[in-house]
Write a structure and sequence with these properties.
By secondary structure, the chain is mainly α. Helix content is 56%, strand content 7%.
Length: 82
C-alpha cells in the first residue's frame, strides 16, 4: 500500500495546510485527503504542485508501506492504514 507522507513533511517543516492551500491553489478538501492519507487515486497535477512547493521528489511524498517499515520512515498520522 502507498503511504502519503504529507503530514510528516509539513510537520517537520512546521507548515500549515492552509499555507499550502494558499501557495499552491490546491483545494483544502483535496489537501485534507492527502494530509490524512485518505487519497484513493493520485492526481499528477496535485502531486506536481506539492512536490514543487515542498521541493521534494514524488518518492519523498509517496512511499510504499513496506519500504517505510524497512527504513523506519515516519508514516502518516494514522499509520498509513485505511
Amino acid at each position: 500500500m502507498i503511504i502519503c507522507r504529507l503530514s510528516t513533511l509539513l510537520g517537520a517543516r512546521r507548515i500549515k495546510v492552509s499555507d499550502v492551500c494558499r501557495a499552491t491553489g490546491i483545494a483544502r478538501a483535496t489537501l485534507d485527503r492527502y494530509y490524512n492519507d485518505k487519497v484513493t487515486s493520485f492526481d499528477r497535477e496535485v502531486l506536481g504542485k506539492l512536490c514543487q512547493f515542498l521541493q521534494v521528489k514524488p518518492g519523498d511524498l509517496l512511499v510504499d508501506e513496506e519500504v517505510a517499515d524497512l527504513f523506519g520512515l515516519p508514516e502518516a498520522k494514522d499509520g498509513g492504514k485505511p
